[in-house]
């Protein structure tokens, strides 16, 4: 007995993708899975972006936000085949993360290896024993 959920077919018809995102006009819209870690001297964000090239990834830091975006056209070329039907799609992945107030954005770095983007943002170290000095006028 094959039990199917009729709502699964409706979701496919409406454009939901198996990635948990939504589909709009041939575009897959989804967020990147991330890990965020804060250490004593740096803030690190690791984002899964499998299948993207470095030049398709955009990382921007502004004020208290880190924005990661990746965009590509997913086309498969096969010169030996005569296609009866061929679907092209555009894939877009975004994610925004809040940054600590003591982040040093000018010293931030990003690396991309094996489908994982790692963004490292140094942060000013505060001595917990002494706290932050406030000048008195």
Automatic annotation (TrEMBL):
Where would I find the SHSP domain in this sequence? 25-137
Instruction: Return any one Pfam family short name.
Output: HSP20
In terms of InterPro entries, this protein maps to: A-crystallin/Hsp20_dom, HSP20-like_chaperone, Small_HSP
Per the similarity annotation, which family is this? Answer: Belongs to the small heat shock protein (HSP20) family.
Q: What is this protein called?
A: Heat-shock protein Hsp20
**What species was this sequence derived from?**
Halorubrum ezzemoulense (Halorubrum chaoviator)
